[in-house]
Amino acid sequence: xxxxxxxxxxxxxxxxxxxxxxxxxxxxxxxxxxxxxxxxxxxxxxxxxxxxxxxxxxxxxxxxxxxxxxxxxxxxxxxxxxxxxxxxxxxxxxxxxxxxxxxxxxxxxxxxxxxxxxxxxxxxxxxxxxxxxxxxxxxxxxxxxxxxxxxxxxxxxxxxxxxxxxxxxxxxxxxxxxxxxxxxxxxxxxxxxxxxxxxxxxxxxxxxxxxxxxxxxxxxxxxxxxxxxxx
Length: 231
Known about the structure:
Number of strands: 6
Number of helices: 6
Number of domains: 2
CATH architecture of the largest domain: 2-Layer Sandwich
CATH class of the largest domain: Alpha Beta
Mean pLDDT: 76
Strand content: 15-25%
Structural class: alpha+beta
Strand order of the largest sheet: 1-3-2
Largest sheet: 3 strands, antiparallel
Low-confidence stretches: 177-231
Shape: elongated
């Protein structure tokens, strides 16, 4: 994000007015400043200093708060799992679900895990900090997938280098958005979640998801689709 500070200055010439404006802003000529000449005689300019805000970085306290919230969330499930804080980087908090039933929360190709990550990323920023994003793993599935994709890409790159020919990644080697940190920000389709109606609808989605998980545990299989979560 950017913040802007604007001042107006006068001078005998436009250059003199610009120099005075830079002095008022407390910056040198190398700063990112936009000038608008308002008058030329006598000179009057408007100077706008464009400042980039430092990127948000999760503090250890916020990371722990996120992990505690997810722990409270998973304790409501009829599953033997617990949330473990694995670390944080930038605005991302990495949490892994561990326990006897952690594999149940992965689902086919990580579908259940990705749905759960999506739900948490619509709730956690409301109870912690708006900039926070969750990267959720379960039973190490996302970590193993990311490592497999990395090794696959490296192998293909080495093959391209050796043969001097182009190569196309197979479909399963194309990383999904949820395989990296930016996946925490992946936007769902319109039917995944009703947006802009406060926190109450989210409780309904969570209840539906918990019910689906309970049924899945009894069947020892999981097939929760976006429709069943959003219904």
